[in-house]
């Protein structure tokens, strides 16, 4: 829009500088006047400084060019131009670039204005050559400078007073991206970046005109004038436009730095090699730190592939390649309603991935994928918060809440409900109706569409409706007044709902700002939650563990093992019946772990002298004979599962939780295990119990998003429930088995 005016300002400034240089008798050789920074790029705003350097070649008389400098600067000052000037020799310029990565990056934009053209060209080419040659050593330093600036200033898309230059996603980042591209180590979508950069420059030009001075921060009173200058209907549209630009540059910047980090980790190869693909999920592969599609992937036949790829990228904290995401948006068919189980599971894995969620969610947003997954997202996209305490716009706050909730999934029985409620808790914002009231029916409809059962749908809607309740009561009511607890329990009627509301309250507050979860507020909220839990426990009993008996196959009576595989939606159901013995559960679990079969849920119970286990797994087409051969090899000890399944907790996983539930059963000791959903967890737990000569009389094994929640009813072989000492011994053994050392 104002590019022509920037070119005119640059041309006028060049005319001033050339006139001053010529009037001072500046030589044509040995000395050059060069422009750097925004002036070097030809991007002068109405009130920009002129950044210029008088450069002298080696051997030029120092007194001569120092006298020349004064004769050049004074006419420029007299003209009213604001000048940022320096006088350096060529070796001094190159030495400064060697010593300061900011100088080196800035000199990539150097431009000849007057004097010795070849000297200016030599400065530029030498700087660029050194920049490329030393990129692997210099980019980590530049990366840290960028991070420090981001921490100090914040993000353009979310600041209440956006800083067009220094904020993350601003003009400074756009310039850094050009410096990254100049290294030849990484590529950035040049046309997209230049479009955003030019539009940010347009906004800055209009801001200077509105403020009547050089300014990079947009105060509230300028939005109206910016909207008029940009040809937009109102202030809200202007805000959205600027924040969209900031978000896009932020996305390009994060993607470029991820790729730069990957390039720096790789040893330079003499010849370019074909990218290696590591299969990580059906249709999904990992290549050079990015999630891409397998060569044989068929997006048109797999509606879950988009969510599967996104979840793998987030869980592994790697890049979801934007071309891959864009292709999946184009080619994947819409998800059926309600969603299949795998789609819901993959969404929960994505939301519970922790810090890896944010960059993947940004890619989904930038490529239009969120319109397919969650069309209601547009309601809150880039919506500013009314309260100044919020650090982010509503959409980013929601994602940050999911990140915070991911650290709390060990505290709740339904982590899938927690992270989906975190995603939807502010979905009602942007209307005149109070957002929790408006959001509850929207969340209910979305949860039903995602395929949650009726109980979970109502629980999610309940959490959205009352997500402010716990903090409001805790900070405004007397905790010792019985009516305070009653006011909370009027809307929260179960221990599970209370735990979920407590975790959502903490995640929401932490995502808002540090002030929203101060030690004082946290103490009040957690104390009220503890009191409410005590009140609920006094009036409730744990549900009984019940199973339905099935007929025992005739062959099992004679000592055989029966394995039946039934196809189900998105996988298989495997039923195993055998004579009961200590360690049987561990051996069956080892079969699935060794064959890298993902267990989604399982139930185990005893029927007299026989043990029955039913396993819902993610893989289709399993061969029962192959499973039987594997089990036989394990039970005969021809295969040692412990030697091949010794993997323990990996970096980034939450610590596992092992809890004894003495109130849950009178005839057995109940051990509840929560750990990251990874191969071998059930085997490790059941093997640890078998090693103590304990028998698992029944078990309920389930996967809720990224977390395995396994409940074991354990007895002594010839007795009932474990003693307190033996129960503690069992819990310790299980914890040691699934933890890192």
Describe the protein's architecture and organization.
- By secondary structure, this protein is of the alpha+beta class.
- Among the domains are: 3-133, 2-Layer Sandwich (Beta Polymerase, domain 2), CATH 3.30.460.10; 154-264, no CATH class; 554-739, Alpha-Beta Plaits.
- 51% of the residues lie in helices and 14% in strands.
- The chain contains 30 helices and 16 strands.
- The strands form three sheets. Strands 9-10-12-11-15-16-14-13 form an eight-stranded antiparallel beta sheet.
- Helix 10 (223-230) crosses helix 11, helix 12 (305-316) packs parallel to helix 14 and helix 14 (341-351) packs across helix 18.
- The longest helix is centred in the middle third of the chain and has 31 residues, at 235-265.
- The chain is elongated, with a radius of gyration of 32 Å.
- The mean pLDDT is 90.
- Residues 573-650, 670-739 form the ACT domain.
- Its cofactor is Mg(2+).
- One of its GO terms (molecular function) is [protein-PII] uridylyltransferase activity.
Per-chain topology:
Elements lengths: L2 H21 L7 E5 L1 H4 L9 E7 L5 H17 L4 E7 H10 L1 H6 L4 E5 L1 H17 L1 H19 L17 H12 L7 H22 L11 H8 L4 H31 L12 E4 L2 E4 L2 E4 L11 H12 L2 E2 L1 H10 L9 H11 L5 H10 L2 H5 L20 H13 L8 H10 L10 H15 L4 H12 L3 H8 L5 H8 L5 H18 L6 H20 L15 H4 L4 E7 L2 E9 L4 H11 L4 E9 L2 E8 L6 H12 L5 H4 L12 E4 L8 E8 L4 H11 L2 E11 L2 E10 L7 H15 L3
Parallel strand pairs: 2-3, 7-8
Antiparallel strand pairs: 1-2, 1-4, 5-6, 6-7, 9-10, 10-12, 11-12, 11-15, 13-14, 14-16, 15-16
């Amino acid at each position: 829009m104002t590019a022509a005016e920037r070119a005119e300002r640059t041309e006028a400034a060049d005319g001033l500088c050339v006139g001053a240089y010529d009037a001072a008798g500046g030589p044509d050789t040995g000395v050059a006047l060069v422009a750097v920074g925004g002036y070097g790029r030809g991007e002068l705003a109405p009130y920009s400084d002129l950044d210029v350097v008088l450069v002298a070649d080696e051997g030029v008389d120092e007194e001569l060019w120092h006298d020349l400098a004064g004769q050049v600067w004074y006419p420029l000052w007299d003209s009213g131009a604001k000048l940022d000037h320096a006088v350096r020799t060529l070796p001094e310029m190159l030495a400064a670039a060697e010593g300061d990565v900011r100088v080196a990056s800035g000199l990539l934009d150097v431009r000849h204005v007057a004097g010795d053209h070849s000297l200016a060209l030599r400065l530029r080419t030498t700087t660029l050559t050194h920049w490329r040659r030393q990129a692997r050593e210099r980019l980590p330093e530049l990366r840290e400078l960028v991070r420090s600036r981001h921490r100090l200033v914040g993000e353009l898309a979310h600041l209440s007073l956006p800083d067009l230059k220094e904020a993350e996603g601003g003009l400074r980042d756009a310039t850094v991206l050009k410096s990254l591209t100049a290294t030849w180590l990484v590529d950035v979508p040049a046309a997209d970046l230049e479009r955003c950069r030019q539009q940010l420059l347009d906004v800055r030009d209009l801001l200077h005109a509105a403020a009547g001075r050089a300014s990079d921060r947009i105060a509230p009173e300028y939005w109206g004038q910016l909207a008029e200058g940009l040809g937009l209907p109102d202030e809200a549209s202007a805000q959205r436009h600027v924040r969209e630009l900031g978000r896009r540059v932020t996305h390009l910047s994060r993607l470029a730095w991820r790729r730069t980090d990957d390039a720096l980790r790789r040893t330079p190869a003499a010849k370019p090699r074909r990218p290696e693909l590591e299969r990580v999920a059906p249709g999904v592969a990992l290549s050079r730190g990015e999630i891409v599609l397998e060569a044989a992937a068929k997006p048109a036949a797999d509606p879950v592939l988009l969510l599967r790829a996104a979840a793998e990228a987030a869980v592994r904290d790697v890049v979801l390649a934007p071309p891959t995401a864009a292709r999946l948006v184009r080619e994947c068919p819409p998800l059926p309603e309600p969603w299949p189980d795998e789609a819901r599971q993959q969404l929960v894995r994505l939301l519970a991935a922790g810090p890896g969620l944010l960059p993947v969610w940004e890619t989904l947003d930038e490529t239009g994928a969120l319109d397919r997954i969650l069309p209601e997202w547009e309601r809150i996209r880039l919506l500013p918060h009314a309260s100044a305490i919020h650090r982010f716009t509503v959409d980013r706050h929601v994602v940050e809440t999911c990140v915070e909730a991911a650290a709390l999934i060990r505290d709740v029985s339904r982590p899938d409900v927690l992270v989906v409620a975190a995603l939807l808790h502010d979905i009602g914002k942007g209307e005149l109706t109070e957002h929790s009231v408006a959001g509850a029916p929207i969340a209910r409809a979305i949860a039903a569409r995602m395929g949650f059962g009726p109980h979970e749908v109502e629980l999610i809607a309940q959490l959205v409706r009352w997500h402010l309740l716990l903090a409001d009561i805790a900070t405004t009511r007397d905790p010792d007044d019985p009516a305070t607890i009653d006011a909370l329990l009027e809307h929260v009627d179960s221990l599970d709902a209370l735990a979920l509301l407590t975790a959502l309250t903490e995640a929401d507050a932490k995502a808002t700002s540090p002030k929203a979860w101060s030690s004082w507020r946290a103490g009040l909220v957690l104390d009220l939650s503890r009191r409410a839990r005590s009140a609920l426990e006094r009036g409730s009993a744990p549900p009984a563990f019940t199973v339905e008996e099935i007929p025992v196959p005739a062959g099992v009576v004679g000592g055989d093992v029966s394995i039946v595989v039934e196809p189900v939606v998105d996988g298989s159901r495997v039923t195993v019946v055998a004579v009961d013995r200590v360690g049987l559960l561990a051996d069956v679990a080892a079969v699935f772990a060794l064959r890298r079969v993902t267990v989604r849920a399982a139930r185990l119970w005893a029927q007299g002298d026989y043990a029955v286990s039913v396993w819902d797994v993610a893989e289709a087409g399993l061969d029962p004979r192959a499973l039987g051969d594997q089990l036989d090899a394990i039970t005969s000890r021809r295969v040692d599962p412990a030697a091949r399944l010794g993997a323990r907790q990996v970096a980034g996983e939450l610590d596992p939780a092992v809890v004894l539930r003495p109130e849950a059963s009178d005839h057995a000791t109940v051990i509840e295990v929560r750990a990251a959903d990874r191969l071998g967890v059930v085997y490790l737990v059941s093997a640890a119990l078998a090693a103590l000569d304990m028998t698992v009389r029944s078990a309920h094994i389930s996967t809720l998003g990224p977390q395995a929640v396994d409940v074991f009813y354990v007895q002594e072989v010839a007795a009932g429930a474990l003693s307190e000492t033996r129960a503690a011994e069992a819990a310790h053994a299980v914890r040691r088995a699934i933890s890192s050392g």
